[in-house]
């Protein structure tokens, strides 16, 4: 079964636990909000084919994602859809909705 290690507490999270903790896709900077179910630490994460990068967002003339800790996760991938970001991690798929328009910087 695929899993990922939480950057905050080093707990081994199943695909289901990781995706359950992933919410609110910020399309402009292409990252998700993530909250660990074990330690409750929150991070921004970027998901690319085969990789999850833990990081944070900041504003310097506009919003940016600063990737700090890339982790190889061969079983993960994401693709943008009209409704949000579809994330597949092994056998588990979740549609992560976009942040509401009022929460997005222009």
- Rounded to the nearest angstrom, the radius of gyration is 13 Å
Biggest beta-sheet profile: 5 strands, antiparallel
The number of domains:
1
Order of helices and strands: EEHEEEEEEEE
Outline type: globular
The count of helical stretches stands at 1
Low-pLDDT parts are none
Give the number of DSSP strands.
Answer: 10
Mean pLDDT equals 93
How would you describe what is shown here?
The chain has one domain (3-100). The chain contains one helix and ten strands; from the N terminus they run ββαββββββββ. It has one helix at 15-20, and strands at residues 3-5, 12-14, 22-26, 31-35, 42-48, 51-59, 63-72, 76-80, 84-89, 92-97. Strands 3-4-5-6-7 form a five-stranded antiparallel β-sheet. Strands 8-9-10 form a three-stranded antiparallel β-sheet. A two-stranded antiparallel ribbon has the order 1-2. The chain is globular, with a radius of gyration of 13 Å.
Notable features of this structure?
106 residues; mainly beta; five-stranded antiparallel beta sheet; three-stranded antiparallel beta sheet; 1 helix; globular
Briefly summarize what is shown.
The chain is mainly β. The protein has 1 helix and 10 strands, in the order E-E-H-E-E-E-E-E-E-E-E.
Architecture blueprint of SSEs:
Layout: E1 3-5, E2 12-14, H1 15-20, E3 22-26, E4 31-35, E5 42-48, E6 51-59, E7 63-72, E8 76-80, E9 84-89, E10 92-97
Antiparallel strand pairs: 1-2, 3-4, 4-5, 5-6, 6-7, 8-9, 9-10
